[in-house]
Amino acid sequence: MKSRKNYAAAFILAAITAALAGGYVYAATEHFSDSTTDQAWDAWTQKWDGQVSRDYEKIALTPGTDETKLNFAWYSKTDGTATPKVEISRRSDMGQSTAYEGSAVQAVDGYQSNRVTVDSLAENTTYYYRYYKNGKPSETASFKTHNFNSYSMLYVGDPQIGASKGQTTSRGDKLENKSDINTAARNDAFSWNKTLNTAMNANPNISFILSAGDQINKNVEGRDPGNEIEYAGFLNADWMKSLPVSTTIGNHDSTNESYSLHFNNPNDTQLGKTTAGGDYFYKYGPALYVVLNTNNYNCAEHEQAMRQAVETYPNTNWRIVMIHQDIYGSGLDHSDSDGIVLRTQLTPLMDKYDVDVVLQGHDHTYSRSYLLKSDSKTHSNYNFYDWDNVKDEAGNVYPYTDASYQAQNNCYTIANTMTGGVTNGDGTLYMEANSATGSKYYELIPSKQDYIAVRSQNWNPTYSVIRINSNTFAIDTYEIAGGKVQKIDNTYELKKTNASRR
Known about the structure:
Residues 197-366 form the Calcineurin-like phosphoesterase domain. The chain is α+β, with helices and mostly antiparallel strands and 502 residues long. It contains 8 helices and 26 strands.
């Protein structure tokens, strides 16, 4: 077996050669979640072909600026005379409802994106709502708030609806992702719904979802509607109309406006932007969440966003950052190459702003780090546009492949190696989520990096459940194998004995 450095260098060289030839191909494996083996598949294909794939008007719930607010976004047919409206009630018959109005912007041809925020939400309450599209109220749906100060979240990575393209199903069909025939999206949307249903059946008190990017797969530019069928599959999942989802912009989301038209993210900083949008943040109970668009490599802007978030909510017990690119992961495809382009710049920022946990995606493998800190030395900064799109504006496909690049990225120290958790620890925990749908998997890098405590690749959809209160952050990670749920890592806990951060 090649050494880690030689293996990574050989892989990068092969990637460069393929990219220069005009056909960059990832080392995606033959493993994927084949939905055609499920007994509900035939009924799903009829539903997908007849309705779901054509319905771009599904609603998305996202966290508001704090736990008492909730944001809504949905497409409707273009109608400049209609004011977007959501009605909220504590009664299932929608009696004594409160109406909230919002604004609309032009979306893809023939559609507008509607955005509304509701406020004054109470904890431990079931709410019913309906929204107006094309002048008519939707069917009544519901969502439930839980304890604001002690709650659970579902953390997932890379649903990437449509990424199973090119795989062959149990029925001998090769999955495609053409705009008009996206059988890959059909396969992956089924799996996404199955993962959410499985996770929620086991954890019915989840407050919201954290998705570490790549909601969809198809890279299209600007306002090209070519990925709308994949967003339709993502938003069609049963729980999406009842669970807020906080999403990160992944490299597959980054080049297209549809992301920001489907998700009404709070506290939009207008920093760290790509075509899809930029950095945002919100508070929920004892935690501050900062979501950075690391497809933009301007870390000065990311620092501005982090500073703005901390100044807005200075006294939260926990600070959690979510990014797509894994600056500390263990997957073969990214963790020692483009994933760490921002490591030298972001690691000191996690120290400076006292970040407890960083949630990552991108590498389609699972890993958990030790607690890490910056080594406080000066290191080179690297700027390179995401290689997934092979559009480096500087002209080189992947310029950082030499030993000095690897040496500069040894910019961390391992602050704590306790395996089950840490009390009043110093440093930042870095989590890497495997694919929640199994639409695409990567290999682990051959040699486990010294900063990695635990890692795995079992070729099954995974999800994590995070429990948080004023004193504890705890995470459990599961895989769905053969219809059964099983843990793939021990519970890991961060504890703080002080009542508040300051």
